[in-house]
Amino acid sequence: MPFTTVDVVIFTVIEARLRVLLVQRPNVKDDPCPGLWALPGGFVDVDRDDSLEACARRKLLEKTAVVSPYLEQLGSWGGARRDPRGWSATHVYFALIPAEGLQLAKGANAAEVGWFEVDEVLGWPALAFDHAEILRAAVDRLRSKVEYTSLPAFLLEEPFTLPQLQRMYEVVLGRDVDKSGFRTRMLAAHFLEEAGYVAGHSNRPAMGYRLRDRTGPVVFPRTFSPRQ
Amino acid sequence: MPFTTVDVVIFTVIEARLRVLLVQRPNVKDDPCPGLWALPGGFVDVDRDDSLEACARRKLLEKTAVVSPYLEQLGSWGGARRDPRGWSATHVYFALIPAEGLQLAKGANAAEVGWFEVDEVLGWPALAFDHAEILRAAVDRLRSKVEYTSLPAFLLEEPFTLPQLQRMYEVVLGRDVDKSGFRTRMLAAHFLEEAGYVAGHSNRPAMGYRLRDRTGPVVFPRTFSPRQ
DNA sequence: AGAATAGTGTCTCTAAGACAGTATAAA
DNA sequence: TTTATACTGTCTTAGAGACACTATTCT
């Protein structure tokens, strides 16, 4: 019988960079991947976890103390050789959380925890298990969904302004987005509601917005597609 | 420790209807859902299956004798109460196969196997386990992807004609599609290559096409969106 | 006044949608 | 010659993209 784990790919944006939470595995002999960086996760606890999603939520809460993030199932990876301990299957979720006021809790058996720039990590020689492949799938999914959904809104604390939201899009997509088109698109999709003016650090204050519906992103009928 | 299964939602189009393969569970006392219709699937065999996808492929081959279908991971469902035998997690794949020359093999422990109209099944009072929920998720995924990908091509044997492909779109979407726009869209996406004229039953022969790449569908930059 | 950021107006152009038309086969 | 299906052409229009413009705050 295969053993079952749940892993979570947690994204946030810090200092204008898309980052992912990684934990370092303990550098001891009996660990399957000693010393390597891994996605947070681990075994399902059949007594505490009522479902896979509940398990993912628990693991996310333990690491980041974030209660209600955006959480989406990414997929599952399973096979005979991905874990030296035997046939295993992991259910992977990915989460988007706002960076404001984040505090990391070191796990019991995790040597270190940190936020790493996604594009750097993708260039590393190895992550634990097949976590490099999983991370790549998560980044691909995120970048592709950002082209046609309102997902980046979940990277911001409410209320947020349209310029802030635009910056989230630009950070994730890795390219500039036209201001005017961006604004019409966001307002036309009707997923934002006004929440009063927010004073910035200086200069003209901007309108703050809240999501009408925090359960999921809105899907736009077209992708962002700059002319080449 | 949870136990691990793999289920497969197999779609095809027969007589202009989107259909799904279901198997009837044996009507015996020790079965968890006796007599109910279920998605084909079952336990992972750690000796025969090298990976989750290999397991799905095996189950599909056993039921339909189709060797290289379109196969995509749909998601996973796991929890304490979805199977009366205990905490379980299932990895679900969905497959698209052409209807031509299909032959069904009855499984060893399956009383009956059949192709059922999807919209009918969605109205049934119950399927085994949480398979009603899983089927709904699969249909939602399929219908939404059909709006912006070339997925319906995998419902046809090659070579196929553009009118045939259009019919697949119309069956899955449940609405008519404009011929002219459909053709420009398909040809502009450049995923088809000509394969000589195919004589229909009567009337003017149509150009046959093959997929340039059978590994996956092409993504269109916009969804089909008829004006309201 | 000047700088910085927020927000609007306008023009162009692509491609989708609607629909009428032409082309090629069989009966 | 009619019928059925395959395929093309043309017109309209929505909306994206580009970019210049105005508005409001702080220093």
Automatic annotation (TrEMBL), chains A, B:
<dbReference type="InterPro" id="IPR054105">
    <property type="entry name" value="WHD_NrtR"/>
</dbReference>
<dbReference type="InterPro" id="IPR015797">
    <property type="entry name" value="NUDIX_hydrolase-like_dom_sf"/>
</dbReference>
<dbReference type="Pfam" id="PF00293">
    <property type="entry name" value="NUDIX"/>
</dbReference>
<dbReference type="InterPro" id="IPR000086">
    <property type="entry name" value="NUDIX_hydrolase_dom"/>
</dbReference>
<dbReference type="InterPro" id="IPR036388">
    <property type="entry name" value="WH-like_DNA-bd_sf"/>
</dbReference>
<protein>
    <submittedName>
        <fullName>DNA mismatch repair protein MutT</fullName>
    </submittedName>
</protein>
<dbReference type="GO" id="GO:0003824">
    <property type="term" value="F:catalytic activity"/>
</dbReference>
<feature type="domain" description="Nudix hydrolase">
    <location>
        <begin position="1"/>
        <end position="139"/>
    </location>
</feature>
<dbReference type="InterPro" id="IPR036390">
    <property type="entry name" value="WH_DNA-bd_sf"/>
</dbReference>
<dbReference type="Pfam" id="PF21906">
    <property type="entry name" value="WHD_NrtR"/>
</dbReference>
